[in-house]
Amino acid sequence: MIVSEAFARARELGVDRVDATLLLCALLGRERGWLITHDDFALTPEMSGILEAQFARRAAGEPIAYLLGRKEFHGLDLAVTPDTLVPRPDTETLVDWALELLDGPARVVDLGTGSGAIALAIKHRMPAALVEAVDLSTGALAVARANAERLGLDIAFHQGDWFGPLAGRRFELIVSNPPYIAGDDPHLPALRHEPRSALTPEGDGLAALRAIIADAPQHLEPGGWLLLEHGYDQAEPVAALLRARGFGEVTLRRDLGGQPRVSGGRLPPGR
Ligand code: GLN
Fold first, then answer.
1. Cα of 254 from ligand 1 centre, angstroms
2. Bridge partner list, 71
3. Ligand 1 center from residue 180 Cα (angstroms)
4. What is the pTM of this model?
């Protein structure tokens, strides 16, 4: 099979040309420009077989990030596997807010770090910050640790449930993109290739947000901030939970699509 035939095959299977290009570039170790000028390049039978299998997986809805094993997030090239959620551009809103709040060697923790995306992006842009990250999944932690090592970013990782591994510890900033989709949300089937436990806490979708907000004051310094990603329709319940737990300066930020996406609050200074 030659390159032009590979594109024809992708079209037949219903695979987007952009995705086919990405897969071919990764397989051949070439740039897009090379591919355009070499549409008669012959793939080995082995390569053709690999590509055919990847096209089939993509056609069945598997995220392109899992097929490539990579995803760009906040300027970092991250490895991702089906053990981790695929980092979303929406989550960059949370990272940007965190970076505005940080100066110097503040202690920061990312709860439910997955691929490590949030923790790594913060450490990358604010090297003086002392960044830690927690995840319940050992598979996700292995991916996050490997990302940190490859990118040369020093992060302390802990395995456990939210604040479980952080007994007695306090931070200036706590960030999290926890599972927040409701268990019966009609969008979940389309996300079936990603770890369900990273997407939904089941029920109304608020359980993880509730658990984090409930325990956060015990793990924040006075004046410390808690920033949480949440669903487009969860800004009001999250704000109410934050206020009820004693947080002030409760604020909402929207994602790139204009949807309510991240809420934060600050513990009163000097408490
Ligand atoms: N933002 C993701 C989505 O809606 C969900 C991420 C999450 O549950 N934390 O696809």
1. 14
2. 78
3. 7
4. 0.95
